[in-house]
UniProtKB/TrEMBL annotation:
<keyword id="KW-0663">Pyridoxal phosphate</keyword>
<dbReference type="GO" id="GO:0042286">
    <property type="term" value="F:glutamate-1-semialdehyde 2,1-aminomutase activity"/>
</dbReference>
<dbReference type="InterPro" id="IPR005814">
    <property type="entry name" value="Aminotrans_3"/>
</dbReference>
<dbReference type="GO" id="GO:0030170">
    <property type="term" value="F:pyridoxal phosphate binding"/>
</dbReference>
<keyword id="KW-0413">Isomerase</keyword>
<dbReference type="InterPro" id="IPR049704">
    <property type="entry name" value="Aminotrans_3_PPA_site"/>
</dbReference>
<dbReference type="InterPro" id="IPR015422">
    <property type="entry name" value="PyrdxlP-dep_Trfase_small"/>
</dbReference>
<dbReference type="GO" id="GO:0008483">
    <property type="term" value="F:transaminase activity"/>
</dbReference>
<dbReference type="InterPro" id="IPR015424">
    <property type="entry name" value="PyrdxlP-dep_Trfase"/>
</dbReference>
<dbReference type="Pfam" id="PF00202">
    <property type="entry name" value="Aminotran_3"/>
</dbReference>
<dbReference type="InterPro" id="IPR015421">
    <property type="entry name" value="PyrdxlP-dep_Trfase_major"/>
</dbReference>
<protein>
    <submittedName>
        <fullName>Glutamate-1-semialdehyde 2,1-aminomutase</fullName>
        <ecNumber>5.4.3.8</ecNumber>
    </submittedName>
</protein>
Length: 559
């Protein structure tokens, strides 16, 4: 009679270790949706789409009639200015959008989705014909100060990269597109990269995403383990489930998304024996456990970011120690920040050496590239004692002569005095600029501030609001060019001249003042800040529930 009891107890004891592992893993996940990718995908499928219409869309915060009128007039005037300024550029953008899904996606998700239809009245061109120093010039001859940073490529000014691209073309021209062998400059690139990274070996790839793929592949090969740990909010390219959650049709399978700066995460790394590697994107130091900011996420009107170099360096050091103890490969994904924080990248900046480090973007000297540098024990791709046990990684255009030439020009330029000077006092110079920028915004009386990781900035708002996303259009109207994520990320070249920075500051403040004058940052002063925030949250929840209910009724009627 006791056999079933004993069998149940034995089963429970056998399952106990698995249960403890799952519990530790759950505790190491960040409590937000960024840390729970399956739940994030469910919410994304549940979230109903709805489109707000004028004039009701401009009074979501309960603004009085006179303020609503000011907003309507400001909206119409802004739309007219944007259309009148760039007819040729806008016409070509509209033509290209018909055949380019990228433009359709970025155009729609430039703003919070309830405003996407309305925002079509505020057109933004997608084409540039040339640059003049830090200025971009469109088909209509308009000049815009470039704050896009070419998605991280532009570390040392646009004209610098025009030079490295030309030099790379000259260097590779005699060989042409010969891809079976290597141009002699490749040997110099390898030697320079070994010196800068402190690593033993180098492999070349065609993009940053591909470089990260190879680093993870090598970690799995050498550990015999399957799982990858990434941190909540981090981006490592769009491949497989290393970019989990909304935006990826696959569910998470072999990737654990854990909390950054977390003791519980370190405990998981110490205890588990199925983790091959930990991916670190040092950009997360600016917004730990949060996805990269964009204006499309400003539905609730808030955004947070801050940077503490010492605290993040301490975290990385502890992470380094735990990975060493557990035999886990520590991979730095420096595709974005590499050569921006220091000539030796984030490893040198934070004083922590990884096992493998991935570079891209600026390293190509203006041309597309990905690179993995690593310690010999992690980089070898075969086992002499097991001749059939290999780790393949190739690509037709790896080490293309023109790309290798432009990379060589970039790496050699790092030794030039004028380039070295751009790194001298880099942190102090950009911290001073951040303080100066915020002081000017405070003096202007606008609810806007910036937070910075060196020359990578994001815009913050000091009060909740439903219309913060509009600032990107006022900035465009003021002659500032932003990437499609809008005010979520401003990227300056580290060598930006003082005159250009001052121009950016003045234009930014002028745009904020104009937006404020048009009434978009009105708030009910009779309410304390928290009560004001609650009002906005309740309104947003009410809109979403109404849209959800209408969607259900429509689906039932269709069935």
């Amino acid at each position: 009679m006791l056999e079933p009891v004993w069998l149940g107890a034995a089963a429970a004891l056998a399952a106990a270790p698995w249960g403890w592992r799952r519990l530790r893993l759950s505790r190491a996940k960040h409590p937000s949706l960024a840390g729970h990718q399956r739940m994030a995908k469910r919410v994304a499928r549940w979230l109903p789409g709805y489109a707000l219409q004028a004039p009701q869309a401009f009074a979501l915060d309960g603004a009085p009639a006179e303020m609503l009128q000011a907003r309507l007039q400001g909206w119409q005037a802004l739309s007219q200015r944007l259309r009148a300024a760039a007819p040729q550029t806008l016409a070509l953008t509209a033509q290209a959008r018909d055949g380019m899904p990228d433009l359709r996606l970025t155009g729609r998700y430039r703003v919070p989705y309830p405003f996407a239809e309305l925002a079509r009245e505020l057109p933004v061109g997608a084409f540039w014909v040339r640059n003049d120093g830090p200025w971009l010039i469109d088909l209509d001859g308009n000049r815009f100060l470039d704050l896009t940073g070419s998605y991280g490529v532009n570390v040392l000014r646009l004209d610098f990269y025009k030079g490295t691209m030309e030099e790379g073309a000259r260097l590779g021209a005699a060989l042409g597109p010969v891809l079976g062998g290597l141009h002699p400059c490749v040997a110099d690139n390898v030697a320079r990269l070994k010196g800068l990274s402190g690593m033993d070996d180098v492999t070349f790839h065609m993009s940053g995403t591909e470089a990260v793929m190879q680093a993870v592949r090598l970690a799995r090969y050498h550990t015999g383990r399957r799982y990858v740990v990434r941190f909540a909010g981090a981006y490592h390219g769009w491949w497989e489930d290393v970019q989990p959650g909304p935006g990826n049709p696959l569910p998470p399978r072999e990737t654990y998304t854990l909390a950054d700066l977390s003791e519980a995460t370190l405990e998981v790394l110490r205890k588990r024996r199925d983790i091959a590697c930990v991916l670190v994107n040092p950009l997360q130091a600016l917004h730990p456990n949060r996805a990269a900011p964009s204006d499309s996420t400003l539905v609730g009107g808030t955004r947070a970011a801050a940077f503490d170099r010492d605290a993040y360096a301490r975290w990385l050091q502890r992470l380094r120690e735990v990975c060493t103890e557990a035999g886990i490969a520590l991979i730095f994904d420096e595709v974005f920040v590499g050569f921006r924080l220091a000539p030796g990248g984030a490893q040198a900046y934070f004083g922590v050496q990884a096992d493998l480090v991935c570079y891209g973007k600026t390293l190509g000297g203006g041309l597309p590239v990905g690179v993995v540098c690593g310690k010999r024990r992690w980089m070898e791709r075969f086992r002499p004692e097991r001749p059939a046990d290999l780790c393949f990684a190739r690509g037709t255009f790896n080490a293309h002569p023109y790309v290798m030439g432009a990379m060589n020009a970039f790496l050699r330029a790092l030794d030039r005095p004028e380039v070295r000077a751009a790194y001298d006092g880099l942190d102090e110079r950009w911290r001073a600029r951040e303080r100066r920028f915020n002081a000017a915004l405070q003096a202007a009386g606008v609810p806007v501030r910036v937070a910075a990781l060196s020359s990578i900035w994001t815009v913050l708002y000091t009060q909740p609001g439903r219309y913060h996303w509009l600032l990107q259009y006022y900035l465009r109207d003021a002659g500032l060019a932003l990437s499609w994520v809008g005010t979520g990320r401003l990227i300056f070249p580290i060598a930006l001249e003082e005159s250009a920075f001052e121009e950016a500051l003045q234009r930014f403040v002028a745009a904020c003042r104009r937006m404020q004058a048009d009434g978009w940052w009105w708030r009910d002063e009779a309410l304390p800040p928290e009560a004001w925030a609650r009002r906005l949250r309740r309104g947003l929840l009410r809109e979403t529930l109404q849209a959800w209910w209408q969607t259900r009724r429509r689906d039932r009627a269709a069935a």
